[in-house]
Design a protein that fits this description.
The protein is α/β, with parallel strands linked by helices. The chain is built from six helices and ten strands. A six-stranded mixed sheet has the order 6-7-8-3-9-10, sandwiched between helices. α2 crosses α3, α2 runs parallel beside α4 and α3 crosses α4. The longest helix has 18 residues. The structure holds adenosine-5'-diphosphate (2 copies). The site of one adenosine-5'-diphosphate (ADP) has 6 residues, from α2.
Length: 229
């Protein structure tokens, strides 16, 4: 079934201090089906991040509507949505373990349960043995895995990733792509990956959404036809 949907969604940044208003996105009509892996590609500035912000509830559409599980998003990160950004967003003053545990501790989940889940997430993301390390002691790829593990801990049904491998070297990017695929298979989550790398989109995604230059509209939605079982 449909997991989330954009209906005629646009995003316009109002002008200020002599700058004109900027039409950043849309109108976009897009339906994401539950459990599929989507990639969004398009030139820099076409509105990919803006699209993700709308789905995450980090920004509201200027016109149109955004739905998750049939409910309109009310301008905050919806339950069950996890976001991973390009920039390393780990907390440098916390260990890998504490970074990954952070979200559940905020929610007041008991340490026993957190411990089990952190173990699971570190294993899945290949971080076992590095629990006591600090982010500065890790490679960029490992730090990015910490960020993904931290998002996974919240058991999101919808995982939104904005250029998560953009800062990584080619080899690490390929490895991380494989890990993302494994993760998708294991969790059954709906995944939406924003990338400017066409090869990454074509190799990983079930469905590739192609956007035009600003203001971004969908040019095409292409099924890659990968057998996934
Ligand atoms: P992409 O992710 O495809 O590079 P973005 O969604 O980041 O594109 O940006 C789309 C357009 O909106 C760009 O022209 C960008 O400069 C503009 N934009 C993004 N955020 C803001 C903002 N906070 N204020 C004004 N313009 C913005
Ligand atoms: P805190 O005093 O912050 O509650 P703990 O006493 O639980 O921390 O653990 C101290 C440090 O040991 C943590 O910061 C974490 O990095 C690490 N740690 C905790 N549990 C584990 C574990 N099961 N495996 C590996 N490292 C752990």
């Amino acid at each position: 079934g449909t997991h989330c949907e954009l209906r005629g969604a646009t995003r316009v940044y109002p002008g200020s201090a002599g700058r004109p208003a900027l039409h950043a996105l849309g109108p976009i009509d897009l339906e994401l089906e539950a459990g599929r892996f989507y990639a969004v590609v398009g030139p820099s500035g076409c509105g990919k991040s803006t699209l993700l912000e709308l789905l995450a509830g980090l920004a509201s559409p200027s016109e149109g509507e955004v739905f998750i599980n049939g409910q309109p998003i009310e301008g905050n990160v919806a339950d069950g949505v996890g976001v991973v950004f390009q920039d390393d967003a780990s907390f440098p003053w916390l260990t890998v373990w504490d970074n990954i545990a952070f979200g559940l501790r905020q929610k007041g989940v008991s340490e026993n349960i957190i411990s089990e889940k952190v173990k699971g997430a570190t294993k899945l993301m290949g971080l076992t043995g590095f629990e006591s390390a600090y982010p500065a002691q890790l490679s960029g790829g490992m730090r990015q895995r910490v960020c993904i593990a931290r998002t996974l801990m919240m058991e999101p049904k919808l995982i939104l990733l904005d250029e998560p491998f953009g800062a990584l070297d080619q080899q690490t990017r390929l490895l991380m792509g494989d890990e993302l695929l494994n993760l998708w298979r294991e969790t059954g989550a709906t995944v939406l990956l924003i990338t400017h790398a066409l090869d990454e989109a074509a190799m990983l995604a079930d469905v590739v959404c192609v956007m035009s230059a600003r203001p971004g509209v969908l040019l095409d939605v292409v099924e890659t036809g990968w057998p996934r079982d």
